[in-house]
Amino acid sequence: MAEKNVETTGLLGWVDRRFPLTSMIKEHMSEYYAPKNFNFWYFFGSLALLVLVIQIVTGIFLVMSYKPDARFAFESVEYIMREVPGGWFIRYMHSTGASMFFVVVYLHMLRGLFYGSYRKPRELVWIFGVAIFLCLMGEAFFGYLLPWGQMSYWGAQVIVNLFSAIPFIGPELSLWIRGDYVVSDATLNRFFAFHVIAIPLVLIGLVVAHILALHEVGSNNPDGVEIKQGPKDKYGRPVDGIPFHPYYSVHDMVGVAGFLIVFAAIIFFGPEMGGYFLEYNNFIPADPLKTPPHIAPVWYFTPFYTMLRATTSDFTWVLAAAALIAAVALFIKGRLPGIWRVIVPVILLAVAVLLKVFDAKFWGVVSMGGAVVILFFLPWLDHSPVKSIRYRPNWHKVLYAIFIINFLILGWLGTQPVTPTYTLMGQVGTVIYLAFFLLMPVWSRLGTFKPVPDRVTFHAH
């Protein structure tokens, strides 16, 4: 085998002859050219990676003292908080990190929505990102049971029971997930294994795939201009790009510093965040004989939980009508490629019929899950001639604002007890959320679009 051509010497040269360390750093850092017009929205990708590291490291230290046993789980958490040196700090870092992970990821996805980062050629980058989001939801759900407090126990009971609504296989599936007829020690052990081993391995793999796919096609930018297709210097490098390292690696340190200030302030002064990050009922040991008056998931699940609760028998008529309208609109006005112009409307028509065949509880689960799964199809739902929100009609920006406000309202409704008024608000919010995506092939290409510049617009700061 021919000797590798290695430029470095000494210890680094010895490593490079056996492992492509320097070449990887060059390819993904110092010789990876990113658009020079990144703004603060681009902090959140690196912040998500930072929080992932925080969660893994703090999780390792927590596992050293935690006991995944229904008799001792709650006491082991109290032992960590009261007896383990620095245990309270590690536990609060982990619990705060879980919520901050979703804050960062939601903002990271919102940036992708604003600037069209899911559009060609970054469809696979987006798909990996949504898969990461699904893994985070699973990781958070499985980890939520581990403190074995009242809300952990009953929250897991409610969510697992939802699977029983799936026709034909539901009861057996929920029994298999629990490992028992009720949430018990078997459930705790299963959730612990998924939370500590299975999902983190998948999550790390998806993060690596996400970054590799991004660096293969290049980063998007606020203008939606492809710098690889723009002018290049005599070395073949994009004129509108700058090396990620040292420019953006240092630039991201500003975001990291700001994030850590907020992160530390929450840990030291308000780790419960008014009961949103750590519910007060979770400081009470799990009691299978005493149900809390109001069971609600953690705040980052509440928008989807609201959609679940909003899907009543009467509301399925509204969803059926909405599916019918979407099918007609997509067939007449949608520009779906090839046979998909027929397949997608047919699927929606089938859904409209089946909505009155199966139980409303099942469709609640479908609407909750579909609200996340639909994000996978976003690259093919958006038919706008431009990527960035900067060059879209102003009324498009109003739609995005309505979508964001609606999502926040859905999140708040998920923390409130069920009342007729809140149920109606949840139903309206569910329709707005689903209509935003299902009708996107129609509304995304309507209006007068501004001309997109040939090169990125950049102002030094």
Characterize the structure shown.
With 461 residues, the protein is an all-alpha fold. Helices cover 61% and strands 1% of the residues. The chain contains 18 helices and 2 strands. The chain has helices at 10-16, 21-30, 43-63, 73-82, 87-115, 123-144, 150-162, 170-178, 185-217, 244-269, 302-310, 315-332, 340-354, 360-373, 378-381, 394-413, 420-438, 440-443; strands at 33-35, 241-243. Strands 1-2 form a two-stranded antiparallel ribbon. Helix 5 (87-115) packs across helix 10 (244-269), helix 12 runs parallel beside helix 17 and helix 16 packs antiparallel against helix 17. The longest helix is centred in the middle third of the chain and has 33 residues, at 185-217. It starts with 9 loop residues before the first helix and ends in an 18-residue tail after the last helix.
Observed structural traits:
single chain, mainly alpha, two-stranded antiparallel sheet, 18 helices, 2 strands, 61% helix, globular
